[in-house]
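hiii so my PI (J.) wants the whole complex modelled not just the main chain, which honestly fair. so below is everything: two entries, each one labled with what it is. i double checked the lines twice but i was tired so who knows lol
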Amino acid sequence: MNYISIENSQTILLCDIPESNYESFYDMNLELVKGHVERHCVNYFGYQSGNNINLICCIADDATHRIFISTCLVNKAHELESFSNKLLCFEKFEREIHENFGINFTDHPWLKPVRYAFNRDDMSQTMDNYPFYSIDSEELHEVGVGPIHAGIIEPGHFRFICNGEQILHLEIQLGYQHRGIEQLFIEKKKLLQRAILAEDIAGDTVAGHGTAFAHVWESLCGVEASADIKFARTLAQELERMAVHLSDLSGGCTDIAYQLGSSVFGRLRTPIINFLQEWCGSRLAKGLVRPGRNPFPFTPALAERLSQVLDVFEPDFNEMAEKLFKLSSALSRFEHTGKVSNADATAIGAVGMAARMTNLNRDIRTSHPYALYPELNHEPILKRHGDVYSRVQIRKEEVSQSIGYIRKLIASVPAQTSTEKLLATPAPNSFCLSLVEGWRGEICHCALTDEEGELMLYKIKDPSFHNWLVLALSVRNNEISDFPICNKSFNLSYSGHDL
Amino acid sequence: MLDNLKIVFHQGKQFIPNVQTAVVPGIFRGRPIISREKVDEDDLIAICPTEAITGNPVAIHLGKCTFCGECAMRYPEKITFTKDYKLASNDPERLVIREGEDNPIEVNPDLVRKEIHRVLGRSLKLRQISAGGDNSCEMELNAANNVQFDMSRFGIDFVASPRHADGIVITGPITKNMARAVQICHDATPDPKIIVLVGTDAISGGMFGDSPAIDRSFLTKYPVDLYIPGNPAHPLTIVNGLLDLTRKL
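here's the output for the full assembly
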């Protein structure tokens, strides 16, 4: 086979990635994924090289914990057969390649703009002329919402086609948040600047994206993080997971007008993020993860403190969660609302919670484990119904699971062994890919370096890149009044998608 | 019913009684103090990821600072971040902290437009616009209205429509793709209205200031009534800033 098999966060030479022509590249990757539920595409992107465009495809195999990387050189003038026509999970990747480089995929079902990047190929495509799908019928009406929404959330435009109160179709237009962050990774030369940029990809996944960047950078520099650094990153990610799940449980209660749940879950988030501040000075863990060093060592005193925080937190959380899951008026709103089938989630390539809610077992913590997850023997929480109820259950159970992991972790705090070492220049002409399970799901960062070891390309993929389509499908045939609860139960990232 | 009452009882009182004197837990990077200690200024300036530090004399611009704390880690004898969370001002000059200064940051009363106290002093409804914000300032704005910080006790609320608002609160560096929506939302807000910028990204662009995907021309057209620094701004910074602007307590 014409691919190279690597493990998570492994650096390889660019020239070691086998190159084939588009036909065999296409056949091979299609064959790798088709019919293999344990494999999916974690990243597929292009970059300019002379007059041509290099495509790199990365397929992760959850069973063997390997990632298969292959490449091919194509030209803008040639039209290409699309993966998406056979495997829908490639649709967003191919749309992005089309938007950035103008490559035409002949049989792509839905070749629409992704985020209106500032350096897109066709500048005549603008936010104002997005080609929305529409149905011509006197019985139907359209509802447009956004980019600015009723609450304090990020911008995006939702276009519903409804029959009375019932949603037939939802199309989501994104790109409002596009800050050109991938380009800034190249332009900002200081490591600190890049680490801060990684934290700014999505402000609710600071530890997740920060860790993914740190893994890429350390691997490119040939450094292995010490035990205390791995400990800090694992702990920070589990605290972050708890914090966001709590705020989304609160949001879910708000959207079904259950005031008590909304207030209590909302306030329960505070001790968790305040603990992050006690540890690193930021409620959202900004500044905590830095490549090659541990700016805020986790001390036994902090462990003692965290243990106290959890002792007070746990009974309050359990009491509230128990009540919510016994409340028939809440359950009747959660159950069978915003359903996605396992078949659809698999076809779309859903990741993280949006996959696990349909019994699709995707969790980087077990499939491509990193930091201290191998020792935690993580078991993903799976649900079968794919509805709001499944998503709310996952959040509740993952909070409890995270508490368990945190207690286990802080029972033996590793001594601080990491001394600040100056990281060398990254390896030249190299490629590195890092996978991290953020609270939303799989985060994938890829870096390419040039002959001087300078960053040539930095590609970021937030789990929301896959999961926005899951949300759009979940609301079909639901009442439009149930949209908020569907949306909140996923809580996808706009800035992580738009970059 | 009884379960609900039990939960309410177990939760007790959650609100922070005095948001002006509350002490934040642990370490916090609030208003910095710069000593007169001699250090390698060029190196100090070079550490800063957003060029917030300038030399001779050393000063930090809080509207540009990402509060990463790297300068204080490298030169603890020169720079310390205090736990003072009152960082908001309407005067961009006040956001610059100079060597040897240790004064609270406040709203400059002379610069507050007269109608703000008169019309908005007792009730302030705001429309939030995220324009490239990374969702961190957005989460802290939401937190400012949770049961603990409870900003609505002061008559300050966020509303769904600009038609119901007395002003707009912008987070994020203002992306090109969002520039038109920001303008429309501003135009739809009735006069008199205020403009508040929350977070480093909104105030100066932060890490994104020189990105080609940003369009900050909106901010050159209108005066800004309040800058609330932070990355993200702490809920107490937000509450105190808005109170300081709209009324003298």
